[in-house]
Amino acid sequence: MKSFKTSHVLTQLPTQFFASLVQKVNKVMSEGHDVINLGQGNPDQPTPTHIVQALQEAAANPVHHKYPPFRGTHSLKEAVAVFYKREYGVTLDPEKEVAVLFGGKAGLVELPLCFTEPGDTILVPDPGYPDYWSGVALAKAKMSMMPLLAENGFLPDYSKLAPEVADEAKLMFLNYPNNPTGAVATKEFFAETAAFANKHNILVCHDFAYGAIGFNGKKPISFLQAEGAKEAGIEIYTMSKTYNMAGWRIAFAVGNESVIEAINLLQDHMYVSIFGAIQEATKQALLQPQTCVEELVARYESRREALVSACHSIGWDVKAPEGSFFAWLPVPDGYTSQQFADILLEQAHVAVAPGNGFGEHGEGYVRVGLLHTEERLQEAIQRIAKLGIFERTCTM
Fold this sequence. Notes:
Elements: H1 8-11, H2 17-30, E1 36-37, H3 49-59, H4 74-88, E2 98-101, H5 104-115, E3 121-126, H6 131-138, E4 142-147, H7 163-168, E5 169-174, H8 187-200, E6 203-207, H9 229-232, E7 233-238, H10 239-242, E8 251-255, H11 257-268, H12 276-287, H13 291-313, E9 326-330, H14 337-348, E10 350-351, E11 353-354, E12 365-369, H15 374-385, H16 389-395
Parallel strand pairs: 1-10, 3-4, 3-5, 5-6, 6-7
Antiparallel strand pairs: 2-8, 7-8, 9-12, 11-12
Helix pairs in contact: 3-12, 4-12, 5-6, 5-11, 13-15
């Protein structure tokens, strides 16, 4: 069959890191092995019943069978404003400071298209969510990596950025609680970020995908709680993780009015908003009692404790994540991240994500998800223990 030549833009897109991981896992599974897949970030729990019921009722309403408003329903944007006021004490104008998104990823990829020109610099965390790179590539911009190091709590150190890079940068991506490290940000860090960004005229995009998931009784804070944050940029909040609505593909951006208008303008040309029934169910999720969220966080914390305890029991010196549903585990001496991940998959039938897939500074770690039961997580670590890797490490 005839093949058409694709555009230069498509040929410059980064390789989908998780697609290759899925292929490896599927190959081992096709050979009849029971693989415990800790490598992906797909929530394992169903959407809470009251949210599903709200969707079912709204879907039967003929008003939602027509095109919804281009920029989302006013009632949903009002609900977002109520949610942010209740959860974070942040005041938002529903019409000017809230944009409805087709999932958080869409907003992250759209933003470089809205605010950068070819060749412009975008600051990207390293390690970080690989899809930040996709937006950079589509905008034909260039990345300048901000190392996230253990000695700095996996927060970028702005004093280490070259002055010319800070002056050239147009956009910065941040993400706390962090994927993949599980680190959380402080109010002081966010205040420093806003001041740095405002000084250098950098637009900050804080990816708040794991905004509800914090441990030890500490609730993650919003970037918009920091002084000067709304002047500096926006925050993207997805329903995927907080409410187990990953397949629903709905999120929102909140913050700087000019940024929200630009996102809305781009989306005016790409979509006709999201199915109204999904918007109605999302509104109910935000406004109804948050018991389901509290139960979900408790579930992840219990899994975290089971995983970390199991690791310690086999001599694997790991630190418990402070947020998100990921743990960032150091690779034993003598292995690269990819080598270690391949050994675990091929010999223990445990899939993890090698840290180098998240950037150069991800080397030396693997990421695992807290997306299985405590028993299954413990089984994964016991399988790894049987390889004897940590016994050899302890005796070296």
